[in-house]
Amino acid sequence: MPAEGLLAASWLLIALPLAGAAVLLLGGRRTDRWGHLLGTATVVAAFVLAVACTVQLAGLDQRSADVELFTFIRSGELDVTAGLLYDPLSAIFALLITGVGSLIHVYSIGYMAHDPARRRFFAYLNLFVAAMLLLVLGNSFVALYVGWEGVGLASYLLIAFWYTRPAAATAAKKAFIMNRVGDVGLAIAIFVMFAQLGTTSYAGVFGSVGTLAGGTITAIGLLLLLGACGKSGQFPLQAWLPDAMEGPTPVSALIHAATMVTAGVYLIARSAPIYDLAPTARAVVLAIGAGTLLIGAIAGCAYDDIKKVLAYSTVSQIGYMFLAVGLGPAGYVAGLAHLLAHGFFKAGLFLGAGSVMHAMNDSVDMRRFGALWKKLPVTFATFGLGYLALIGFPFLSGYFTKDAIIEAALDRGDVWGWVLGGVAVLGAGLTAFYMTRLMLMTFFGRARWEDGVHPHEAPTVMTAPMVVLAVGSVGAGALLVSVFPLSGWLEPVFGEPAEAAHVVAPAVIGLVVTVVMLLGVLAAWLFVGRREVPVTAPVRVSPVTRAARNALYADTVNESLFMRPGQWLTRALVWLDNRGVDGAVNGLAAGLGGTSSRLARTQTGFVRSYAMGMLGGAVLVAGALLAVTAG
Amino acid sequence: MSASLYLVAMIAVPAIGAAAVAALPRERGLLAKQVTLGVSLVVLLLAVLATAAFDVDGDRFQLTTSVSWIPDFGAEFALGVDGIALVMLLLIGVLVPLVVTASWHEADHGPRPTRVFFAWLLLLEAMMVGVFVATDVLLFYVFFEAMLVPMYFLIGSFGGPRRQYAAVKFFLYSLVGGLIMLAAVIGLYVVSTSQLGEGTFAFDALRQLDIDPEVQKLLFLGFFVAFAIKAPLVPFHTWLPDSGAEAPIGGSVLLVGVLDKVGTFGFLRYCLPLFPDASRFFAPFVLVLAVVGILYAALLAMGQSDMKRLVSYTSISHFGFIALGIFAFTTEAGTGAVLYMVNHGLATGLLFLVVGMLISRGGSRQIGDYGGVAAKAPLLAGAFLVAGLASLALPGTNSFVSEFLVLIGSFPERPVFTVVATVGIILAALYILLMYQRTMHGPPRGVLLQQDAAEPAPGLGTGGATATATATRTAAPGTLRVLDLSRRELVVVAPLVALIIGLGVYPQPLLDLIEPAVSATMSDLGGTDR
Amino acid sequence: MIEAPDLSYAALAPLLFVLGAACVGVLVEAFVPRDARQPVQVALALVGTVGALVTTLLLSGTHETTAGGALAVDGPALFLQATIAGLGALSILLFAERGLDPARSAFVASAAVPAGSPRDRELLTATRVQTEVYPLASFAIGGMMLFVAANDLLVMFVALEVLSLPLYLICGLARRRRLLSQEAAVKYFLLGAFASAFFLYGLALVYGATGSIRLRDIREAGLDGGGDTLLVLGLGLLIVGLLFKASVAPFHTWTPDVYQGAPTPVTAFMAACTKVAAFGAILRLLYVAFGTAEWTWRPLVYAVAIVSMVVGAVLGLTQTDLKRMLAYSSVAHAGFLLTGVLGLGAGGEGSGLAGTMIYLLVYGLTTIGVFAVLTLVRDGDGEASHLSQWAGLAARSPLTAAVMTLFLLALAGIPLTAGFTGKFAVFRAAIEQGAWPLVVVALLASAVAAFFYLRVIVLMYFSEPVADGPTVGVPGVPTTVVLAITATATVALGVLPGAVLDLAGQAARFVG
Amino acid sequence: MTLTYYLVLAAILFTIGAVGVLVRRNAIVVFMCVELMLNAVNLTLITFARSTGTVDGQIMALFVMVVAAAEVVVGLAIIMSIYRTRRSASVDDANLLKY
């Protein structure tokens, strides 16, 4: 139904940060002094507005509001209207984005205080928030695509924020390219929708998708999934996410942990009506989710770079979410709940990591940390809570959301249910292991600091957001699952949550998971906590470790499969174009020239040879004429 | 002035202006520049007026003028615009003043007088307008060929080190195409003679002809080759990298931004309506060329070390998209293709201009001679980025709309080709970001470290080139002070950036102009098979 | 008893003008004191040619035969006579130029003096000028005008000789580089005589086959399907003779040498006027005498046209001497003209005749213009005709370069120049007769030819000037006039050719 | 008795002349060969005049003689002038102009 009241103004959600970005980018140095404040203000304002809108939405009897803005592209059959859809699903994302966004803006004020280009940083952040909001609020796949690539750009700009570092520049490029690969899938999916249904709006597509052949729907589903994998760093497109850590830490927290990378989950959840009709596609989602879950967890165990560990953890956690939404109606809510919870604690963890780096002169090598708990009490506390939430410590948020996913998996009731559930539980164990390892190496043990490092707690402007997020990490899960059930809120989107007969009682699952988690912690303590952590990574290690350190050779594969052949192909083509295509032309010219000078030799300058030529010509002419007339 | 005279004026004003500028005494270089700028602005104004006078729901051709020209050939001096031609006029109107501003110091230090450069520029503008507004095929052909001469002299007299080779190559390639087209033009005339009693070149009359399919194929090929060379489609493309690289920046912009569009414009205006059966027959082959071109040229672009060559190759790739859109035979794709022509003019125009500004500072076209420029010249980098993003068709920039329309419009008809073409957007991201990263990102490199390198290579001086060079020579040894955009350069860049983003967000007005003409073309195409 | 043939003097007026002027010119040589000769001769020759031009225009519309049917005074004849007279007048003006050469003339003071002898060297610097060229040229022009009007093979032969003999002579009259000039004369003469022998033999055979030499009678006796060997052989030999004059490959071999060796104004004269005359005769012979039997010669002309275009275009590519390059270009253009000749439709319809005539006019004007420019660029030893000497000319003399560029573009057939109009006309005629493959070849050939025209432009504009390059002389009144007229015409015929096309269209009907 | 013999003879003469042009070096002789060709034509003309019973052929023969005479005048003049300069009448010596 068309929106009125505040909802009608929900486009401001996007406009505000966008305006902020515009002002900061065009304003130039003039805005250096107050730019960061403006940037933060716009996002906070957006958050307030989002809250208000959501409240109003809650008030509506039929919880969904369309905002028609203007005609974007109309030509022939195609008619794309720029419009927003404010419904429960987009609402929670709007809240997450603006909420966490605000906190991270605040944090960045402190974190980037000494960076000369802070203004640019806030401009990009605002740009990101705007694009991300467009992504989740858009009312058609085209709008989503626009936001989709918009966040890609923002992420590119922010990863490459310190562009004088080649690593950063390369990582940014890598991220953009691998995202583009996914985008191609998304784009083609949209083409198919238009070709088959003549529309690209959610309403139109979901309304008539049922009329399509199963194969087509599956194709759409898989193509969308490709897009989702690109954006969310899922297998086989996961390799860019860890590199993205080259960006400033607040970026990692906001974009590469809390919001952007979860866009894939949003896409699949949003496209529920399509996946409901495409079991094959959904199965693939499950497979990818489960696989990535393990890949991420395993890789996370081996790295010494604190941000990389967190990054792989993110990959793995998003794997959980994919697994959840891959389960269908049973899993959507669980997946989204985990998404929100993850948004809180992972953001918190990253901010914590940022504060640690802040204290350690921007070092990320955990082998040079240790014993920081007394130097950085606040960070330690908030980080710790986030840690506990992540590994699913009972009654913290991760505990509820992750268990819900495992439940949903098992509730399939078939053998695959058990397999997936098992994977999920195993993942929980690994998570516990690598996170504990991280905790131990960072905050406990002996101080292995480089010389001249004097750890000190971050300023309040940074710690405050961490505290808030820590609180969220603790509370979110309970809040979303039991106190204020997300399932009810999302009912208009996913319909009545089917009360499945539990295969295994939730309590049992909780117990099992907790045990496995504790085993993981124990293992970590045995491997890391008990003995001295060497300052340099040991070289002679098991192939498993080596594989894990190389993230299961994802990059190697990409390079040897795409990059190198691509470079060879390019070189070959350049040669072909110059020698072959252009050469043919120049060769023709040269040939003519040669012929010319050779023919010119016949022009000997001797009268008698000229006469000879004429006589010959005359004979030929006469002969030709006779031949023509005779024949 | 009556509306129908706008078009005549758009040809006459720059032509007269060219003569006037050429007549100026050698030392009045500044005056020549001012006159040129003024004239080009007048043309822009006329283009806007013409647009205002154009009735979207009106006849196919409007603002028409027609004077008997060569009665014996049945040729008329007939002008008129449809939506397609109109948007191209707008593009010309916008680009030329910016090019003039950007080339302000282009000819200051060469051996040849400044006025010559600007006179050729204006003459070129007149010819470009003519080629788009002609509604008489012979007149079109005349402009089509005559257009070569000014560009030939711009490249040859003011171009880079290999300008002679490039100029001749450009001229001969286009001439060969043009001559083959001439055969087809005459053939068309002969057919019209036999069918209508007396020969004519009037487009509207020729559109009514019912030509035997076999003949159609021959005539189609005649036109097609000419346009495919102009556009250019692989494998007729090898002249463009040379010309694009050797031409002075202003020349490159107009060459790729407008001149080459004549090719794709020709497909749409002449090949499809005049030879519908042949068009349908050859469509698969053309589409193969188009799609192959998209990928092939994109890969080649990645392999270039010379920025201007790289940009030229990206254009070849883009022309593949345009051709795809035209030969998919759907209104959406066709409209997208036309919009693509405009957007590509703006985006690649900006890209060329910015690259030129960079070259004018570094005095080298080699990517390897640059690095970390963003740190020294953020505005330049920003403009570069916008141009780059536009040419990789990022949503929010104008190119996205057109590329999206082309692809989504082609998909229902030609899914396979479209899917392959879509892969091209990955490559687009690659070649743009590779160039951007190598030149703008990373630590300062190449010319930023050695200061003598600031000497602009002959013919490469764009904009503040020489000014910068002198500034750098006085700069502290060891470090080259790369100045950020000068005020004049900002004036050049700002409007283009604004248009790129504006048209990216709200393209509908242009689409409304374009669509009627395109759907008319498509109906010409479809109208004949029943 | 043979009664005297009827003579319509009015219809013959153009011829009488020129030939009369020529005869008077001879007397002038004999009786007027040397110092006064030059102006008198020039005036006389101009009166003759311009008078002829005017009278032809006055006669326009006439459509009759006279002198007992030996002469045709019809549209084509008058149009081409006018063209020849006009171009002739321009050439005379070029002859009369005295401002460029320090020795006041392009022609040798005394042809009898051996080249390089002391006497010759002292004469070289003397300002004494020779004026035989004017009557000689007038005779040649008269011969050409007779050639295109000849309605009878014998008259055609006589005309051929009348136009050739004076040309042989004036080719050898160069003031500088006399050895080359004389060599050119000898070659031209020997080969020309050789060729006219063929023509004559052909005449005899046709006479034997048909018992008449009147073109009309030949047509009526015509080739009835089977093909009369004598007649066919005769036709072949006649064509050979004419193709030689039109310098069509493979009978072009003399062209480069003679063009290069002859004094530049003479080259201009030959290139422009002889071409017109020769094609006038070819058209008349093929259209009138063999028009009904075009199936016999069409394949031949088709082939010869291709050979000529290709040979001309390809050989032109590597020439380093401008005059020689232009000679090959003229061979190529002969080929283009033949495509027009092929535009003869069934029953004399078709725009081939008109097209060819237009092309001749256009080509003549452009050629004279281009050679006129050539006479301006000089070094110590006469014209600087070597390509390399033209490098960077635009910097030294923008106007000269601009005019040269205009003519070159016209020769290349770029639109908005006269060259395009001509090309369009002939190609249209050919395609109307379904000869489109030939036209495609022609277009490709002209693309190749365009390369060597472009090369000159590249040299003039894009190359840096050479040290001790040639000087660009300041043309006197005559050359200036020529350049002005030709340049204007080249542009006018390119932009608004309507009127002239119309004229040619109306004129394009043979009598008899 | 048939006229063909005369025509054949004329043809033979013509050929001899043509070949002579090709094989002889001396400009004068070459020129004489051309004259021979012309006279072969004359013979042909006369023969045909006889066969067709018209006088045209004979008249033409006279014309040809006149023209030939004129040609001789011009030709010898040219050949003389170059002979004076080069002290040689060999046509092969005159090949400065080539290619």
Description:
The complex is a heterotetramer of chains A (631), B (530), C (512) and D (99). Chain A is mainly alpha-helical. Helices cover 73% and strands 3% of the residues of chain A. Among the domains of chain A are: 251 residues, no CATH class; 40 residues; 28 residues. Chain B has one domain. In chain B, strands 1-2 form a two-stranded antiparallel sheet. Chain C has one domain. Chain C is built from 20 helices and five strands. A three-stranded antiparallel sheet of chain C has the order 4-3-5. The longest helix of chain C has 33 residues. The radius of gyration of chain C is 22 Å and the shape is globular. The two termini of chain C are 26 Å apart. The mean pLDDT of chain C is 90. Chain D has three helices and no strands. With 99 residues, chain D is mostly helical. In chain D, 78% of the residues lie in helices and 0% in strands. Chain D has a single domain, classed as Helix Hairpins. Chains C and D meet through helix 6, helix 7 and helix 10 of C and helix 1, helix 2 and helix 3 of D.
Shape of chain C: globular
> In terms of structural class, how would the helical and strand content of chain B be classed?
mainly alpha
Q: Report, as a whole number of angstroms, the end-to-end distance of chain B.
A: 44 Å
Strand percentage of chain C, roughly?
A: under 5%
Q: Give me the oligomer status.
A: heterotetramer
Q: How many domains, in number, for the residues of chain C? A: 1
Give a quick account of the main beta sheet of chain C: strands, pairing sense, barrel closure. Answer: 3 strands, antiparallel
Q: What proportion of the residues of chain C is helical, as a percent range?
A: over 70%
Tell me the strand order in the biggest sheet of chain B.
1-2
What are the secondary-structure elements of chain C, in order, as H or E?
HHEEHHHHHHHHHHHHEEHHHHEHH
Radius of gyration of chain B: 22 Å
**Biggest β-sheet of chain B: count, sense, barrel?**
2 strands, antiparallel
Indicate the proportion of strand residues of chain B: under 5%
Pair with the biggest interface: A-B, 50 and 54 residues
Mean pLDDT of chain B: 88
Order of helices and strands of chain B: HHEEHHHHHHHHHHHHHHHHHHHH
Shape of chain B: globular
Pfam families (chain B): Proton_antipo_M
Keywords (chain B): Membrane, Transmembrane, Transmembrane helix
Membrane topology (chain B): Multi-pass membrane protein
Family (chain B): Belongs to the complex I subunit 4 family.
Could you give a quick summary of the protein structure above?
Chain D: It catalyses: a quinone + NADH + 5 H(+)(in) = a quinol + NAD(+) + 4 H(+)(out). Chain D: One of its GO terms (molecular function) is NADH dehydrogenase (quinone) (non-electrogenic) activity. With 530 residues, chain B is mostly helical.
